[in-house]
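Exercise 7. Predict the joint structure of the components listed below.
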Amino acid sequence: MITSRGGSPEAGAGAEGTAAVPGAPEGSGRGAGASGATEAPDGRRGPDGAETGEPSGPGPGEPETAEEPAPPPAGPVTNIVVALVVVALGAAGLAGSWSLGLGEASAPSAGMWPFLVSAAITCLGAALVFQARRTRDAERFSSSSWAVLAGLATMAAFASLVGVIGFEIPAAVLAFVWLRFIGGESWRLSVLTSLGIVVAFYLLFVAVLAVPIPHLF
Amino acid sequence: MDFLTPVIDGFGVVLEPANLLYCLLGVVVGMLVGVLPGLGPAATIAILLPLTFGVEPVTAIIMLAGIFYGAQYGGTITSVLLRLPGEASSVVTVFDGHALALKGRAGTALGIAAIGSFVGGTVSIVALSLLAPVVAGFALDFGPPEYTALALLGILLVATVSNGGRVKAIVAACLGLLLATVGRDMFTGAERFTFESLSLADGLDFVPIAMGVFGLGEILYNLEERRKGAVAPARVANAWPSRADLRQSSGAIGRGSVLGFFLGILPGGGATLSSLAAYALEKRRSKTPERFGHGAVEGVAAPESANNAAATSSFIPLLTLGIPANATMAMIFGALMIQGVTPGPQLVSEDPDLFWGVVNSMYIGNILLLIMSIPLVGLFVKILRVRGSILAPITVLITLVGVYTVRNSVFDIALVVVFGLVGYLMKKFGFEPGPLVLAFVLGSLLETSLRRSLLVFDGDPTGFLTRPISGTLFLLLAVVVLLPLAQKLFRARRGTARAEREKADA
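Solution:
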């Protein structure tokens, strides 16, 4: 019986009941069964109040995340946009698989399966549009989201430059940016560590393992 | 005792020096991962996938399996000492484990957890050894319709049990199915969704998707987390639990092991769910439930036994049916496919060395873990002091260079970055990445069996329902889909009824 929802809420409820006792740090287990991102049963989170306000702290009734405030949930606009992106993705899939040809049920062609899957995505996206006002599991972007952008930029730079100038310089830059600007380490430590990482990578991948990764030296 | 011969041969495989070494490597890495909060076992296996290419399939899977169950051990240590569960599956251990640590009994908690984990793992391995060949024998008769049903059921169950919105989890799974169709169609040879790109003609590779969505996506997501203040870890003294503690928790260990074993087999079950369920069970059974949360030894013993038992038994659906039961098993499935081994019912008979080698490596791995976990606690506490800001760039570079080494392709580096962004956005907006990877892995199996079945049935979909096994599975599928809907309807109706009653009262 535990396969379906018949069992899992039971287990979840057991954990929730105990969570209240010691005030456990649920938020710190990322992706944990009990992390704040679970589809909250009705009334566990406060009512829809944080739609327009600034990113405020954790909502009321979440003492378990007080140590480590989770980013506030995104507003309905974000949720609708996300849902529409899903619909658009499904629509693109529908168009793409239609052009491949569906074939017959007795002789399915290349487009049949992706068409079915895309149809499912489109329908589920539409369901998300209708749920958008009640959706609580999306997070809004916060002031620390720039770190993600910076991190992505260094990775993209690495990916586009590695074939041209080898891996050493992009790797050093990536490590330095992550240490100094994203991680907030000191200049000295950032410079030394990023150089050390590149040397270690060079020794490991080029000298020892002889991986044909493009390299400068 | 003929049937025991392959089992014993399996021990011969494990005891080869290379395999022992990789087993040790796997469990140590797994423990480290379990200790460090942030990256889960699926992400770690994703990042370390390139390491497995140069080695034999058996050796590779032995190491990856070691990472998986080693992480269950490691997560306990941080839960008890620092109240930081390194793994989702040790979240419940925090309640009583940390309470014990506050009472100065951290050693007892860790010792009980280690013993519980060992017993849970061993019970599960023995049951696995007995049950897996039976299941595999049964599954040998499965045809395309049965596999269609199994794959659908597996994907759907994983999506249903995952945290986050259920609709979003299914969207993620469908996305994974769609991604799996990229490339040349196996039946007609038509190129699908390749956008005329040569790099896409052979389809998307599993490695960059898994490394991107799990590895980079998780690292990027963690960048937004607030810094954790260093907590002074409790001192660990006397890691050996007393005889009274052992007696008190022996029942919990036994029940946790059995419960964990069964929940681990179910798709989507796995370690996290079973640890929660085992804790809830012990608390309900206990004559003194008020002790739970204030340092009850059973509250550590039950979930720890259960999560290890589940970690082991979740290999059953993978090794016997070829259907991974959770995201981590999807990674091991992918690793096997890359090695040219297709997991399925024929694995036990056709590749007994691999099957029994992997299963038996778990005995050895569990013994290694039991021996190492208690003396190494001090070391792990030290490792926790390494700052995330230093580990993150190293992990990123290992991912970027590692993904290149798999196919020596710069395109794969770009792909892993793209999927890193996808993984980040998915987590940000409440879509679990697990179902995507699982569905991607099962995508081609599902499509192939569906199209084969349709050919067999001559386009008549009712054929799925008239075959006994596939019919049963589809019935189960319908229950999984309809039950939550029915529950919601029922709850909504009760809610409105209550509201009306309140209105009438007022």
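Discussion. The helical segments of chain A are 8-19, 76-100, 112-131, 145-165, 168-182, 187-208.
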